[in-house]
Amino acid sequence: MMYHILRASEFLVITGIGINELKITKKALVWPLQKCRIIDVTPVNYTFEVNTMSAEKLPFLLPVVFTIGPCVDDRERLIKYAKLLSHHERDSHDVKDLVQGVIEGETRVLAASMTMEEIFKGTKDFKKEVFDKVQLELNQFGLLIYNANIKQLVDVQEHEYFSYLGQKTQMEAAKQAKIDVSEVKMKGEIGAKEREGLTRQNAAKIDAETTKI
Q1: Reduced to 3 states, what is the DSSP secondary structure of residue 76?
Q2: N or C: which end of the chain has fewer CB atoms below 10 A?
Q3: In what residue span(s) does the Band domain sit (predicted)?
Q4: Which CATH architecture has domain 44-163?
Q5: pLDDT greater than 70 at residue 178
Q6: Which alpha helices (H) appear in the chain, and where do they start and end?
């Protein structure tokens, strides 16, 4: 019989006699014929590049950094996480491979449904949808995304699509800027001529009134 008190980032998972499935607590007396295991709930960083393809089968890289851990404020999710760790260690390759597999799988499915231009022009929406889909899959393991940083989309060597689209966007913006400047200049010239015409009209009116006097 042992009494356990844990650190802030730890929970005690107890199984065995007198317990239905499992019990999760911060401190407890563990009786004979019961087993206990300490689980760490500190979020873990996952950093890697997802190699994926667009709807046109054009490859690109998506560098991602996800901070993922169990949701300690949700008892049901915490139980799911404890069940996951009952088969694997927290820092084991199995858990890392599981999380990475979810992120890569959801990203590839989403990218395959969009053209390269749609991904490029809707980068923010694309990243948000990746986040939402990954979180939906992680829910079954009691895991929560605490932070996600999906970085700038990167071209694969010899496939410089994003560079081309970026240059195209810059050229279109520059062209539009020139048009805007020309329109402003033209409006300015028209306004100047209108003011000049009004000035002449007013001068003629004053001359006419002076002549009458």
Answers
A1: helix
A2: C
A3: 29-183
A4: 2-Layer Sandwich (3.30)
A5: no
A6: 75-85, 93-112, 116-121, 123-138, 161-212
